[in-house]
Amino acid sequence: MLCSLLALLLGTLLAQTIQQWPAVRVQPVGSPLSLKCTVKGTSSPTLFWYRQAAGGPLQLLFYSVGINDTVSEEPLNLSASRPEDGQFILRSEKLLLSHSAFYLCAWSITLSRAGPPSVQKPHCLLSPSHPPLELSLRGWVDDICDWVSDC
């Protein structure tokens, strides 16, 4: 039974996807903008919007732990909404030149169970042996791959 449960959990985890639309968008200053993030294959994910200006660090803009529950970290004249469980939308009514950046949607899953409080294992990215890294726009994919192989 344990093997069946493990196989079921692994199958569920492998079927999850995230999509950011549009993947690439270039718009003139002063125009409105809407970026949509959709997560499928899981329920109640925590969703995040990040921003990285050229040469700058990755910056958390918004996160959401549930429908209509959005927390603003550094809004920069942007807004975010979560109208559905697996959907997170980033908007600007009027783009500014300072909005020029790479925008990234991300998600994480929080598992819950009945019983005594759980203990969360520190994520390898935040452990003392793996201090947080500042990502560069050019090398962010390489950095993520390195993080995964270190875990």
UniProtKB/TrEMBL annotation:
Keywords: Immunity, Signal
Extent of the signal sequence: 1-15
Nucleotide-binding is among the record's keywords: no
One example of a Gene Ontology biological process annotation: cell surface receptor signaling pathway
Pfam family, one: V-set
Residue ranges of domain Ig-like in the record: 30-105
GO cellular component: plasma membrane
Gene3D superfamilies (UniProt xref): Immunoglobulins (2.60.40.10)
SUPFAM superfamilies (alphabetical): Immunoglobulin
Protein name: T cell receptor beta variable 30
Native source species: Prolemur simus
GN (gene name): TRBV30
